[in-house]
Amino acid sequence: MSKILSAETKAIIKSTAPALQMHGVAITTRMYERLFENAEVKALFDQAAQESGEQPRRLAAAILAYAQNIDKLENLTGAVSRMVARHVETGVRREHYPYVAEALLPAIRDVLGEAATDEVLAAWGEAYWALAELLISMEEAEYLETT
Ligand code: HEM
């Protein structure tokens, strides 16, 4: 992983796994509502997968798997490769990642309410960018190869 997360951050992330299991789809559904206020970002997504609820479910599962495996990321190698492949197919770029961060963190707050303390949101902000940096670097390597 490109950025090292502290043991404390990892412990906070792991402690949020049960809440994510319960509310993951609600969080990602809310996240997409926020994200799609941006028309350029919305156009990247296959709307059929959105409407069937498929895409929020995939993203919720990915976030939950990340929380559960935050200290054994080698378990996520296959899942990360699939995300990278899908992102490259749909033209996701580095500059899109802040939009997802800005939609995801408030969505966690919207759904978890007071349970999403400042500490929890700060830990998720750090963890999001650690994963994002990994995806971005793998995606940039793929774009270089294919263009
Ligand atoms: C850390 C951040 C992110 C994670 C964890 C993530 C995760 C995922 C996952 C799990 C999938 C489904 C892969 C599959 O089909 O098996 C996916 C697909 C996709 N992601 Fe991401 N993603 C992230 C960031 C982004 C960003 C920044 C964008 C662009 C704004 C984006 C746009 C897409 C699109 C367009 C698809 C294909 C969806 C479709 O089939 O319609 N993702 N992502």
TrEMBL record:
<keyword id="KW-0813">Transport</keyword>
<feature type="domain" description="Globin">
    <location>
        <begin position="4"/>
        <end position="140"/>
    </location>
</feature>
<protein>
    <submittedName>
        <fullName>Globin domain-containing protein</fullName>
    </submittedName>
</protein>
<keyword id="KW-0479">Metal-binding</keyword>
<dbReference type="InterPro" id="IPR009050">
    <property type="entry name" value="Globin-like_sf"/>
</dbReference>
<dbReference type="InterPro" id="IPR000971">
    <property type="entry name" value="Globin"/>
</dbReference>
<keyword id="KW-0408">Iron</keyword>
<dbReference type="Pfam" id="PF00042">
    <property type="entry name" value="Globin"/>
</dbReference>
<comment type="similarity">
    <text>Belongs to the globin family.</text>
</comment>
<keyword id="KW-0561">Oxygen transport</keyword>
<dbReference type="InterPro" id="IPR012292">
    <property type="entry name" value="Globin/Proto"/>
</dbReference>
<keyword id="KW-0349">Heme</keyword>
